[in-house]
Design a protein that fits this description.
The complex is a heterodimer of chains A (229) and B (339). Helices cover 67% and strands 2% of the residues of chain A. Chain A has ten helices and two strands. With 339 residues, chain B is mainly α. Chain B folds into two domains: 145 residues, no CATH class; 159 residues, no CATH class. Chain B has 16 helices and two strands. Classes of the chains: A mainly alpha (229), B mainly alpha (339). At the A-B interface, helix 9 of A face helix 6 of B.
Chain lengths: 229, 339
């Protein structure tokens, strides 16, 4: 099925090394428009994960049957069919959230991440690996969008998880800052998303630079004398 | 005996010398401001200066730069003073501190510090705050406000009565709102006759503050800290567009003098658009930069939704400055001009 090492590489690539939002900087349009709070970001990411896993599986299964010359239209047709399914699922089960996310659920079709992973991964790899690639790429998007959305709503309105009652009835959003917090409106506007995304990219680069520095300073591991014992 | 290659400059001007002269040039308008509009500006200057020095020290420490060298160059203080002068004088202390910190941390140091910033830090602070807190940034003290310095400081620190009771729109904003509410039946002259807000040509009190900026700016030009290009082009383009529309319909458009002495026009022309870092450097580029800023400032302040347009106009021209510089490079000495 799938080797442990391969699984780890796919997971590491999706969540950190090739992160869709802060490394590949793909899908900026939903990122800017939807992440005004953490819940919207999480739910859109979950929809994208579902689409990416299903389309990865479908295209990887069919990869040897699709003519190379017309692969992109075929990919888009498959992705569009799956997005329609997810769209109808959201409309039926999470109708209020569906109204909030609006056009951005159908627009998952045009999200560059989906087509990029299908073209770069699913078209060249077996189905199981492609499902995991879709899931972990989507997970990378999930945590970045959740973090960005959380920061934006905290700075912009002092709350966290507003709109959670649309997903899980009965839960209330957290009011972290006092009621009379004036609200830093810029954080909720697209420029605020750009500024915070820039900070997140800088943070990721800084973490990578620090890890590289530590790896450089660490003394090389002693050569194991395999076979002696 | 001095051995040095040409050009034989009399003295080399350091950053701190320029900054001190800019601060000195701001003093006439600060005095007019404190005397005619209210002494709260003095408290705001102190708050902004402290916030700027703190933010500057923090960022220098984070970036591993020498503290004493960069803290004493005065550039942070000039930014702080410009912010204090453009924010409403009775704004809460945290608004001014937040704007100043944003200017120093984001607009200045994240772009590489002194001399590297593509946007004017003070105008970034103004734009960020007016976009984020439009209500607080549009409340200016009512003219004739009788409040002692102590009471004004109480309002700034949040202990006094709510600001709503004390404040209204700027003269520029009041004119725009009045014209819009009148829907073509109200004329500029009937609005300007309101002696509570308006003085001889522009806002009561404010026209003298603007005159102070003009005086300080001319002194800066005399000291060769700034050249004539940017202010002249700014004033000319603002006068031309406002003059043309005023001649077209004097009932709906205020005269050029009103626009020159209102809002941030004079401050923008002499102190902000002349910023050597974020503005243009070639003589022809400076003319284009100033003219563009003046034109945009008029369009935004008259037809836009914000109380004044100078900040956005300068930021938009800052975006264009590198291209303008590239296209207006003077020919190399001895070579023929390509165009």
């Amino acid at each position: 099925m799938i080797a442990r090492d391969e699984f780890r590489t796919i997971a590491h690539n999706g969540i950190w090394k090739q992160n869709t939002s802060i490394v590949q900087i793909l899908g900026l349009c939903p990122l800017l428009a939807v992440t005004t709070n953490a819940v919207n970001g999480i739910m859109l990411s979950l929809a994208t994960i579902l689409v990416m896993a299903l389309s990865g599986f479908a295209i990887a299964s069919l990869r040897n049957l699709i003519p190379h010359e017309i692969r992109i239209p075929v990919f888009i047709l498959i992705v569009a069919a799956l997005v329609t399914v997810v769209d109808l699922l959201f409309n039926a089960n999470l109708h209020e959230l569906y109204l909030v996310l609006g056009i951005f659920i159908p627009l998952i079709v045009t999200n560059c991440i989906v087509l990029a992973r299908v073209e770069a991964f699913a078209a060249k790899n077996p189905p199981v690996q492609s499902i995991f690639d879709g899931i972990f790429m989507g997970t990378g998007m999930l945590w970045t969008l959740a973090l960005l959305g959380g920061m934006r709503e905290l700075l912009g309105g002092g709350t966290l998880f507003s709109g959670i009652d649309m997903v899980i009835p009965g839960l209330q959003p957290l009011q972290l800052l006092p009621e009379n917090y004036p609200g830093f409106l810029l954080a909720l506007l697209p420029p605020g998303a750009f500024i915070l995304l820039g900070c997140m990219i800088a943070w990721k680069n800084w973490m990578d630079a620090r890890a590289a520095e530590r790896a450089r300073l660490k003394p090389p591991e002693p050569v194991s004398t395999a076979g002696c014992h | 005996m001095m051995f040095a290659p040409a050009p034989f400059l009399l003295k080399d001007t350091s950053v701190s010398q320029v900054m001190i002269q800019v601060c000195v040039a701001l003093i006439p308008s600060i005095l007019a401001y404190a005397w005619l509009v209210g002494p709260a500006i003095l408290a705001q200057l102190v708050i902004a200066t402290l916030a700027a020095l703190l933010a500057e020290a923090l960022m220098l420490k984070v970036r591993g730069k020498p503290l004493d060298l960069f803290l004493s160059d005065g550039s942070a203080i000039v930014t702080a003073w410009l912010i204090a002068l453009t924010f409403p004088p009775l704004a809460p202390w945290w608004l001014v501190a937040l704007g100043t910190a944003f200017a120093i941390v984001v607009a200045k140091h994240l772009y590489g510090g002194l001399g590297q910033n593509p946007f004017n830090p003070a105008m970034v602070a103004f734009a960020v705050c007016i976009v984020s807190f439009p209500a607080l940034m549009s409340q200016w003290p009512s003219v004739g406000l009788e409040l002692s310095l102590l009471d004004q400081i109480k309002v700034i620190l949040g202990f006094g009565s709510p600001v709503d009771a004390l404040s209204g729109a700027t003269p520029l904003d009041a004119l725009k709102t009045g014209l819009k509410m009148g829907e073509g039946t109200v004329t500029v002259s009937s609005l300007l006759a309101n002696q509570e807000i308006y003085g001889r040509v522009a806002g009561r009190g404010w026209e003298w503050v603007a005159a102070g900026y003009l005086l300080g700016g001319l002194w800066l030009w005399h000291r060769k800290v700034i050249t004539w290009h940017v202010p002249a082009a700014f004033v000319a383009s603002l006068s031309l567009i406002s003059g043309a529309l005023w001649l077209y319909d004097p009932a709906q458009f205020a005269n050029p003098l009103f626009h020159l002495l209102s809002g941030g026009a004079m401050l923008g022309a002499f102190f902000i658009a002349t910023d050597p870092v974020s503005g243009c450097t070639t003589p022809r580029g400076k003319l284009i930069f100033g003219a563009g800023a003046g034109l945009l400032a008029y369009i935004i302040r008259v037809f836009g939704g914000y109380p004044d347009g100078v900040a956005f106009a300068v930021l938009l021209m800052n975006l264009c400055a590198p291209v303008i510089d590239l296209l207006t490079q003077p020919p190399i000495f001895g070579m023929k001009d390509k165009s």
